[in-house]
From TrEMBL:
Catalysed reactions listed for this entry: Thiol-dependent hydrolysis of ester, thioester, amide, peptide and isopeptide bonds formed by the C-terminal Gly of ubiquitin (a 76-residue protein attached to proteins as an intracellular targeting signal)
Record EC number: 3.4.19.12
UniProt GO molecular function: cysteine-type carboxypeptidase activity; cysteine-type deubiquitinase activity; histone deubiquitinase activity; K48-linked deubiquitinase activity; K48-linked polyubiquitin modification-dependent protein binding
Positions of region (Disordered): 142-180
Composition-biased stretches (Low complexity): 163-180
Residue stretches making up the MINDY deubiquitinase domain: 1-60, 61-148
Protein name as catalogued: Ubiquitin carboxyl-terminal hydrolase
Stated role: Hydrolase that can specifically remove 'Lys-48'-linked conjugated ubiquitin from proteins. Has exodeubiquitinase activity and has a preference for long polyubiquitin chains. May play a regulatory role at the level of protein turnover.
Family stated for the protein in its record: Belongs to the MINDY deubiquitinase family. FAM63 subfamily.
Species annotation: Daphnia pulex (Water flea)
Amino acid sequence: MHDAMAVLPKLQTGLDVNVKFTVVRDFEYTPECIIFDLLRIPLFHGWLVDPQTPEIVAAVVLEALVIENFLERSASQLTYHGLSELTTSMEDDQIGVLFRNNHFSTIYKRQKELLQLVTDQGFLGESSVVWETLGSIDGDGQFVDSHFRTDPPKPELASSGDSASPHPTSPHSASPHPLN
């Protein structure tokens, strides 16, 4: 408990976790990991070496050039093999924490689909954007609402270039508050 209490102040600035490239739940032990263990929150990552590429598997501890190539190709800290293993490892209706790009995000598996909680402030006023599907490593997921329905961003918000603007930009729109 004392170790966990010492980690709590670090939550404001970030935790030090080191992934192992073999299993989605495999991390090098650091004192920061104790907080997840204590709260029984599963911690995942998807930055895995595909076992069907034996030269990379063998080189992860031996050959620096191959390792560098692997790191460049997986700069998003998620591989297709990792995504597949995440989908397989998580149970339906399980919530977990995904470590990716040196950030933690909430992930949820629903009906064999992975979703991550949208926490970007640009969507703060968008009640139709709660989760983003996590079906590829390229970040091209779809936004869904709290009922897991796909609802694309409103055209007036997307075309205005200012996602924080709550009002349509059409010149024919009526102002919600008349000017005095």
